[in-house]
């Protein structure tokens, strides 16, 4: 697929594809849309995913991906939609994910653990943040109140404790909490 010079959209969603995501996909310089949701893809996410400098849509939800979210995820600066939901991803949410300028971030329904990184409050362009259905612990960071464009913030079905930070009151565009 890296040999197709003008391939901008790769949408193979809702099939029965198996195996790992071919690493050569990540070296297509013009790819903008990668839709692989609803397959039987396994293996881990490659750090090479950030080589796709024009990619704005990355959707691998509802597969069987394992391992952790690559530590360099914050370098995927062109992403507008990142959907890793309904997989079997483990580990902490990487700190540098807070460096993205992203509209939708969906990490729901995995096996992510640790606390919610306060740096997620830097995602000031984000409209949808889905973290539900994981094993996240600790308290809700008050910094999430900085995400003033949020419409959807889903934190349910985790192991969170503490109080609801009053800073969430700044989220005046919020529809769903």
TrEMBL record:
Keyword Repeat (UniProt): yes
Keyword presence, Repeat: yes
Key words of the record: Leucine-rich repeat, Repeat
Organism for this UniProt entry: Trifolium subterraneum
PROSITE patterns given in the database record: LRR
Protein name: Leucine-rich repeat-containing N-terminal plant-type domain-containing protein
